[in-house]
Amino acid sequence: MEVLLPKLPSFKFSSPSHCCSITIRSSSFVRFGFRRVSSLSVFASTVNEAVAEPAVGSPSLGHSTRPHFPILHQEVNGSKLVYLDNAATSQKPTAVLKALQNYYEGYNSNVHRGIHFLSAKATDEYESARRKVASFINASDSREIVFTKNASEGVNLVAYSWGLSNLKPEDEIILTVAEHHSAIVPWQLIAKKVGAVLKFVDLNQDGIPDIDKMKEMFSRKTKIVVVHHVSNVLASVLPIRDIAQWAHDVGAKVLVDACQSVPHMMVDVQSLNVDFLVASSHKMCGPTGIGFLFGKIDLLSSMPPFLGGGEMISDVYLDHSTYAEPPSRFEAGTPAIGEAIGLGAAIDYLSGIGMQTIHDYEVELSRYLYERLVSVPNIRIYGPAPSEKVQRAALCSFNVENLHPTDLATFLDQQHGVAIRSGHHCAQPLHRSLGVSSSARVSLYFYNTKEDVDYFIHALNDTVSFFNSFK
Amino acid sequence: MLSPTTLFTLSSSSFNSPLFPKPNTFTPSKSNAINAINAPCTKPKLGSNVAHKLSNLAAEFTSLSQPIDRVKRLLHYASLLPPFLDADRVPANRVGGCATQVWVVAEMDERRRMRFRADSDSEISKGFCWCLVWMLDGAKPEDVLMVDRDDLADINVGLGMSLKAHSRTNTWHNVLFTMQTAAKDLL
């Protein structure tokens, strides 16, 4: 039998008490050799002394809101959880959990049908949630808000309803290569059905969608432009108001994927002058299973139904039906009632803090993350460098040379309790443009702190050092 | 399946070095190297080398309580994976559904034994691949098909995945599925 020796002299299968042997091999990591942290206060004070500025005055938004999120206060894999995968989904505050519990304990009932007390109460709360969403994005009328199961369903709704009835062969649909698959695939399906053409805006030299090229792409053939507001990979922000203007100048519509903007900043659909906008509840402290589509009321009113079922009809005959007015026309079947009410509670919670406060804090956190991350050797961060003019969202997608992002994310999770995302983040065309198959992504929300960032950076350095020791 | 502990009683010192030999090259006669493992074992219920190796893997990873040790073990096994031809690193050999890029080449030799080669751009996935190749290379196609997805749950390395769940990050399941599909096709 062949016995193979390990590649490195230090390679050994240590007992638990020696599990940190890798981290202390390099002197530069000695002070970060800790890994089991029993409480937030211990951790925070340790890191504060080491790196972050001492906390003076009032606590940061991250520190003051963390207690509202029970899930954050746990250990995973023997380390304190540091949750940095917020672009995938956000955590839920107690207020939202309570709203869900109140609904199911107190007034669970079907909406819009029963005349009994519970049904009336459920209907009131459900419709109140719709008004909250409308007000949150400054829609002029709550009828412009259609509840969907997620943002993807919102895009599909527009593609199948508006797209199928308005697109003809050779009509053009403009997108960017940085779109989420959910924004690309429905339009590929529709384009194939009607013979329309998808035109993609590439990245410019700075690694962001080339807006100048996009402007040149508009023509009378353009019927709709489908773009993200904030990129879930590049952290860049598109000038939606300008894009809407260019589109409207040629008679085209605008559909905005606002999944990464609505949770993090004030979004005003009237000011942006967009025709359609989709977002999802679970990325903004609300429950999964619900999202929404905003559509200008005249557009929604002219659109045929997408899905058939109860609720969306006016009258049903054996050979045909007439349809309800928006938004009911697009909400076939019993909706996600509890989830909608939970989303309403999330909006109350976010509004209580203030979206401007959240945004300002995240801008600060984003700068801090970028500055710390860019100091890691052999790292490539995608998207624009932050500057006075360029604001990045509070996320960074990156690769470290010769280290697979999934290996990196696995080790961060197992050894340090840090949750980040690895993969293509549902943006394969963008990754191809960037010349890689995947990347690691760290994404923050307002309940994260600079200490979270510090801990992540230490963990990342330790991870890189660990894998390098095997080369 | 049998509990690993009933099959495999190792002193802790046995884990100071990796347990298993390199996967065999294309020499089926050497595929019984498992017999040389210095450990007492009862006869596996399923009566095959594959079941035996599966138990060994389960015993090995169960004995490593610290995640970092499991990662180290996988990285070591990754380093044992034989070089993979560039010509084989093509879309047709890609394992679908993995978060990393994984390639598997499956063939049957003249003795009707399955021969597997695999590679990945992720070191941890390469470690998984080594384990599966070590377990299934040289096996009869029927034995390859006998491995149940849930059996792999007992080799719970617990690395960023719940092995009970079918997930796009679950390299174990996806690579095994590819190997089994190939075995079925070649039967």
TrEMBL record, chain A:
InterPro entries: Aminotrans_V_dom (IPR000192), Aminotrans_V_PyrdxlP_BS (IPR020578), Cys_dSase_SufS (IPR010970), PyrdxlP-dep_Trfase (IPR015424), PyrdxlP-dep_Trfase_major (IPR015421), PyrdxlP-dep_Trfase_small (IPR015422). Its cofactor is pyridoxal 5'-phosphate. Residues 82-456 form the Aminotransferase class V domain. Keywords: Pyridoxal phosphate, Transferase. It is an enzyme of class 2 (transferase). PROSITE patterns: AA_TRANSFER_CLASS_5. SUPFAM superfamilies: PLP-dependent transferases. Its EC number is 2.8.1.7. Belongs to the class-V pyridoxal-phosphate-dependent aminotransferase family. Csd subfamily. This is cysteine desulfurase.
UniProtKB/TrEMBL annotation, chain B:
Residues 59-181 form the Fe-S metabolism associated domain. It holds the Pfam family SufE. Gene3D superfamilies: 3.90.1010.10. Coiled coil: none annotated. Signal peptide: none annotated. SUPFAM superfamilies: SufE/NifU. Belongs to the SufE family. This is Fe-S metabolism associated domain-containing protein. The lineage of its organism: Eukaryota, Viridiplantae, Streptophyta, Embryophyta, Tracheophyta.
